Amino acid sequence: MKLWALVPVAAVLTAVVFLPEFPAMEAAMAPEAKLEPMTRLAIAKSAPSFGLPSRSPVSAYATSQKPLAGVKICVDPGHGGQTMWSKVSYTGGTQGVVTGQTESDVNLRVALLLKQYLEEAGAQIFMTRVSDDRVSGDSGKTGELDQRSRIANSKNSDLFISIHHNEGYNRSANYTVVFYPGGMPRASVLAENIASAVSRYLGTQNVGAKTGSSYRVLKGVKMPGVIVESSFMSCPQEDLRLQSLAYNKMQAKAIATGILNYVRVSRQQLVDFNTIFSPIDSKADSAQAIADATLVRKQIIEKKSLFGVCYEEVTTGNNGQVISRRSLGGDSLTNKRSIAARNRSKNSKSAKIADAAPSHNSKTGKKSIKVADASSKSSSKKGASVKKTKKVSLN
Description:
Elements: H1 3-17, H2 22-29, H3 36-39, H4 57-65, E1 72-77, H5 82-85, H6 103-120, E2 124-127, H7 141-154, E3 159-166, E4 175-180, H8 185-202, E5 205-211, H9 216-219, E6 225-232, H10 236-242, H11 245-267, H12 273-277, H13 287-294, E7 296-305, E8 308-317, E9 322-332, H14 333-356, H15 362-394
Parallel strand pairs: 1-2, 1-3, 3-6, 4-5
Antiparallel strand pairs: 4-6, 7-8, 8-9
Helix pairs in contact: 6-11, 8-11, 14-15
């Protein structure tokens, strides 16, 4: 064999001898591929302290920190400019019975503090005013109140919160009440949660949510809105407490708690109150416990019987205890009887009026007779239909 033919064979044998050992290399690289950094990403606060639907640790942690992210809230400090404008323009509002402080000033302090709490929860806040002044250039009451709802609507706000304080002839009266527009169930739940939290923090009697459709500031809003009457400035002790900035801050935290509890109920969203409030509140450790204790839910219960169907609104707390019950009426036999009785009385009255109408000419007389006949026929038909309904209901 020639020497040049042995060269390739020798090269192959040399490569095999000096080929690196791959298992040894993998063993050497293994320590550098440790997953310790990934294990450190595990979030300790994966479960909140209250029983709502569980989520993945990361999403639960993120949403509970900023539960109001993407939510627009219009905060309205009620009244405004009492000291400057009360003698020449409408301002409204009461004054402290002891301190003489104006409601517009107290409302503004609470509203500005509320803004901080809600922003910590991720909300975008629009203020109707940021100084003790009127909102509109209109000197009248209508323009001043309408401007507040216009601001809320123009910003496409999701919630409207109007901050107020009450007054009364009885100086010992001091309770919390929150008004909402009638016919807006979501606003009712918002009002109940705010009233529950405020009364718990301030130690006032909780009157709860009341319809306030007659309040002009609520008539124009296109979103769930409330008027929060936290306490009474006509109560000497409460007036003195409202002079304290620390007390104003506690009141703002209470309103924020009610709003966040509303989010928990309406969106089934997790809220970590302690963590949200801690950057601006040294007493945030008890926030979660108070929020859990003051959470309010509402549900409509349908009740069927031989006499028809009726509905009841039941308000419950976080642990299921019934706070209040309210009948909403329904399609019951009792209601049908009362409606039929009202119809019969209306028909009989119209017939009497037609018979008693003066007939100056023959045309008028004929027309009145026709109306009377028509009304009597309709009453007889309605009476027959009522009888049929009775039979169906009883069966």
